[in-house]
Amino acid sequence: MKVLRILRPGPLSTIQDQGRTGYGQYGISPAGAMDPWAFQVGNLLVGNPRNTPSLEMTLQGIKAEVLAKSFIAITGGTGSNTLNGTKIENWRVLPVEPGDILDIGAISGGCRTYLSICGGFNYKPTLGSVSTYLPAKMGGLSGRSLLREDLLYGSPSSLKDNLPTRHSFVKRLSPDLIPKYPEIWTLRTVLGLHTHLFSSETLDLFYTTSYDVTPQSNRMGYRLQGTPLSPTEGANLVSDTVVFGAIQVPPEGQPIILAADHQTTGGYPVIGVVASIDYSKLAQMRPGQKLSFQSISFEEAQALRFKQENLLNTLELTLLYP
Asked: Could you give the domains of the chain?
């Protein structure tokens, strides 16, 4: 079933789920939603399983004509969003009707916004996932970002005839659970594979330096600019497995944080790894913003992840009403 006609695609809008796992040995990145919290909560708001395909938009969202009665949720980065010219909120359910015009404008707070629709966007999985992996032209809409006049398809079995009428359904996320998007970010990190290659002075510098996010940042990784770092035993190693959040230090000493579309192996020393609890922070950083790193233990990172997972399980059972 056709659910949306794209009138303006935005600079980078792609279909994503939580990614494809288990194929790193073949050089295939997991890809998937950059902001796991916004992605999963958006699906829960509209009654979908957490891994249902949604639309991820970067810096500016789409403008689209609604083609089927349904309901949607917009989560993640904030901006000027309208439905038929009337301003609408993030983090709540919005009924839509055929002929409605949805305009998700420039993202002023954060970097990425998610559009979830009842039943999700319906595309054939590739290696168990519909996530768009742009470097390999895999998943989503033929492995590419959206274009003007694209038609997006939904799951007709999930688009029920008794959807609520406009203004009658007001399910939303509790304000206490809505993330804030500051100008300066702190990313919690655990020890990296090669932390031992860096002197204590270099590690102190790493954790006390403020870095700028450069324009050369994307879904593959974030290039940072700050005081250069250098390992004690050289910068080039035998290539090893790398993961989302790995912080590499290339020869010039400016860190690179790997993101969802990261390569599967790398030969630069990994000084630390961003804790998974802060993947959402990483996803919402914009070029020009500043960030710093905070060291935490693996046990702390694990406890934070379990706490977030328990919260998502609770939200899966019931969402708060105003």
From this structure: 2-174 (no CATH), 184-313 (2.40.100.10)
